Amino acid sequence: MAGYKLATYQSADGPRAGAVVGDHVYDVAALTGQAKYVSVLNVLNDWDKVHTLLDAASKAPRGEGKPVAQTKLLAPVRWPGTIYCAGANYKDHVEEMLKAANRPPEPDPHDLGLKPWFFIKAARSVTDPGATVKISNYSKKMDWEIELCVIIGRTARDLTLENALSCVAGYTVGNDLSARDLGFRQQVPETSPFRADWIRHKSFDGSCPLGPWIAPAAYISNPSNLAMKTWVNDVLKQNSNSGQMIFNIAEQISHLSTGITLHPGDMIMTGTPAGVGAGRNEFLKAGDVVRTEIAEIGSISNTMA
Predict the structure, then answer these.
(1) Rounded distance, CA 168 to CA 107, Å?
(2) Which domains can be identified in the chain, with CATH numbers?
């Protein structure tokens, strides 16, 4: 990929913003000559200026870079302001879940006049690429969900479909780990409006592996046509494309920005495609390794424990 990728790397002085150019990581503050760009959030808060600086610097980086292979990369945003998560937003995933529930196909939400719907994931649920996620004492039905994650780089409100993508700094890979057996309070009747428990279902510690870096939007050819794959123990489980989204990225951003001001460092998880464990009654166990990969961005791997 041309240019650079924006990362957070572990330095001797703690997490710092890094620019990955080729197979080396360069400190963003050193590369730009601006000491204030010590974190990715600092960079995102001044996105237009820093992207221009890093894009130019990536053509002939100066200074000492560290090999990526010898550098510990952390989740690129520590920590997102708000994580908005799109639910039921991939055609193939909706089809598999309806089939698993023995329910008939449903109309396209656009035909019903519906808008995207979201839940919020705790910012501190974000965990690093390569990190171990403890699940065995928490859930017996832990599921994987690859997600194309949008990183906001400009304050935005009331965006239209035409200008919605203007606030996007870039994209990263996420895994919306989901405790399927904890999504509903079993002692509460199925007819009750208070049965759902989204916090225990989606926001437990380690439930949002993220990374390995942010691929700037300027370098992504078409975010609506990116191959997405998930492997569990090297067995391919999800094999789809971001083109399967029901509500595309512009629709999601425009809808969210109607009632909410989006800020640099906010993140939108745009939904998962078919191939999740719930569709086949297959779930993660201690020792399993989950690898998620999105074309033009990268891949992350996490071990369950």
Answers:
(1) 30
(2) 5-74 (no CATH), 83-304 (3.90.850.10)
